[in-house]
Specification:
Rossmann fold, 234 residues, 7 strands, 44% helix, globular, alpha/beta, five-stranded parallel sheet
Length: 234
C-alpha cells in the first residue's frame, strides 16, 4: 500500500477526534488510531474510544475495511509536571496567565511527537488530529501555526516528510457537526452523540440532545452550542 494512503489518527474518543476518524476513513486506504493516557480526570473518554471504533465498524462496513489496529500510549508524565484542571482535582476557571486551567502545557506537542514516532515504526507519515482554533478554549497548542511548526520539526527530526492534517482547524463546532453529517448522515451524528465523550467532568448520567456530559464545563458548552446552532440552521 502506498505511503500516502496510510494515516494515523490521534483519537481521544471525543466529538472532534471521532469526526476526524470518520474523515480519515473516508479518504485513506488504511487508518490506524492512537490514544494517550495522560492521567486525565475524564478517563471515561478512553472507554469511549472503543465504543466509537466498534460502532463505526458495525454501522459503516465500507469504512471498517480500512480500519487498522488501535494503539494506547502512556503520557502520564504530563500530569506529573504540574497540576491542571484536567489532571488534578482543581477548579475549572480562567488562570492568571489568560489561559483556562484546563490547559495542559505541552499536551498536543507531546502527542504529536509520540504519534510521529509510532507512525515512523508503522510506515505511516500522515498524522490526523482534531485540533481547532475556531470554536475552542484558547489553547495555544491547538493553533494552526503550532501545527505547522510541529510538522516541520517532525519532518526534520525524522529525516522524512511528515504531514499533520487538521480538518477541523477553521471550522466552528456547528460546522463540525455538519461535517459529520456530510460524511455519514444522521447515523454518524447519532453515533457521535451517543458514543463519544467530551465532558471534562466525565459525566455520563443522561443523554442530552447533543450527547452526554455535565452541560456546564467548557467542552460541554462548546459541543452543545455547536449542535444547537447546526440543528437550527440545517
Amino acid at each position: 500500500m502506498a505511503k500516502q494512503s496510510r494515516a494515523l489518527v490521534l483519537f481521544s474518543g471525543g466529538q472532534d477526534s471521532a469526526t476526524c476518524l470518520a474523515w480519515a476513513l473516508d479518504r485513506y486506504d488504511y487508518v490506524e488510531t492512537v490514544g494517550f493516557d495522560y492521567g486525565q480526570r475524564h478517563k471515561i473518554e478512553l472507554t469511549a474510544r472503543d465504543q466509537v471504533r466498534n460502532a463505526l465498524v458495525e454501522k459503516f462496513p465500507e469504512w471498517a475495511v480500512h480500519l487498522g489496529p488501535d494503539h494506547m500510549l502512556d503520557a502520564r508524565v504530563l500530569g506529573a509536571l504540574g497540576e491542571t484542571a484536567l489532571t488534578h482535582d482543581a477548579e475549572i476557571r480562567m488562570g492568571e496567565d489568560g489561559l483556562p486551567t484546563t490547559f495542559v502545557p505541552g499536551r498536543n506537542l507531546l502527542f504529536l511527537v509520540l504519534a510521529g514516532a509510532l507512525g515512523y515504526r508503522r510506515g505511516i507519515d500522515v498524522l490526523v488530529g482534531g485540533m481547532c482554533e475556531t470554536d475552542y478554549s484558547g489553547y495555544p497548542d491547538c493553533r494552526d501555526s503550532t501545527m505547522a511548526a510541529m510538522e516541520a520539526a517532525l519532518g526534520a527530526g525524522m529525516a522524512r516528510p511528515t504531514e499533520v492534517k487538521t480538518p477541523l482547524m477553521f471550522l466552528t463546532k456547528a460546522q463540525t457537526w455538519a461535517l459529520a453529517h456530510d460524511l455519514g448522515g444522521m447515523m454518524l451524528v447519532d453515533l457521535i452523540r451517543e458514543d463519544s465523550h467530551t465532558c471534562y467532568n466525565g459525566v455520563r448520567d443522561g443523554l442530552h440532545d447533543w450527547g452526554y456530559g455535565c452541560g456546564t464545563c467548557p467542552a460541554c458548552e462548546l459541543r452543545a452550542n455547536g449542535y444547537r446552532e447546526w440543528t437550527a440552521n440545517d
